[in-house]
Amino acid sequence: MRIDIITVLPEMLESPLNYSIVKRAQEKGLAEIHVHNLRDFSDDKHRRVDDYAFSKGAGMVMAIQPIEKAIESLTSKREYDEIIFTTPDGKLFDQKEANTLSLKKNIIILCGHYKGVDQRVRDHFITKEISIGDYVLTGGELAAAVISDSVVRLIPGVLSDETSALTDSFQDNLLSPPVYTRPAEYKGMKVPDILLSGNDQLVDDWKHEQAVERTKNLRPDLYKKYNGE
């Protein structure tokens, strides 16, 4: 998988994309992540990538020219399955969307900034708009890092235990059950007896019951999805 990220703040992505699982995925050759500075595609002599909006309104808007040039530079070299724009008014990102994107070969992520982007970019170049939550960030770089991390870890071979990702929270509209490790008792605090029983079926049933109960109490919205409501 190849992910190309277009941003006005490439420095913000250096750390999130070069450590831990995402770094190992790139070292294994299972993922490529390339960060592009939008200013490199500006025709303005001062490398500006924003301008005032038509009509009244506070704040600046990302201009169409450098974005079109950046996207065309990339799409002239290869085909892309999705061109994503990170924006607060996009579709809320979830595990289902991460699963879908992990099956793609090439994607572009355009990081939103300022008061948004010239609407013509959204109308003519963007294939998917994504938000990571109902709040506003300074820019879309952190959102791009979140999307990249959640997608890359799902690529077969990235995790040493491939079943790990399939049992994460949200995969079946359920939160994960509680987990424990050794010792079985610590200062009077004990691991549930059932986890020490050695009966895999009983343990699996208990874990499922716990996941359902946790989801019902902590995320009633997910619980409704789990029940098909």
Give an overview in words.
This protein has 229 residues and is of the alpha/beta class. The chain has two domains: 2-152, Alpha/beta knot (3-Layer(aba) Sandwich); 169-226, tRNA(m1g37)methyltransferase, domain 2 (Trp Operon Repressor, Chain A, Orthogonal Bundle), CATH 1.10.1270.20. It contains eight helices and nine strands. Strand 8 and strand 9 form a beta hairpin. The chain is elongated.
Concise account of the structure shown:
The chain is 33% helix and 19% strand.
Give the helix/strand layout:
Elements (H helix, E strand, L loop, with lengths): L1 E6 L12 H8 L4 E6 L12 E3 L7 E3 L1 H12 L6 E11 L2 H7 L4 E6 L7 H6 L3 E4 L9 H12 L10 H4 L18 E2 L2 E2 L9 H19 L1 H7 L3
Parallel strand pairs: 1-2, 1-6, 5-6, 5-7
Antiparallel strand pairs: 3-4, 8-9
Helix pairs in contact: 7-8
What is the count of DSSP helices, taking H or I runs of 4+ residues?
8
Radius of gyration: 22 Å
Name of the CATH class of the largest domain: Alpha Beta
Please state the second-level CATH architecture of the largest domain: 3-Layer(aba) Sandwich
Tell how many strands the DSSP assignment holds: 9
The biggest beta sheet reads: 5 strands, parallel
**Fourth-tier CATH superfamily name of the largest domain:** SPOUT methyltransferase, trefoil knot domain
By CATH, the topology of the largest domain is Alpha/beta knot
Coarse shape: elongated
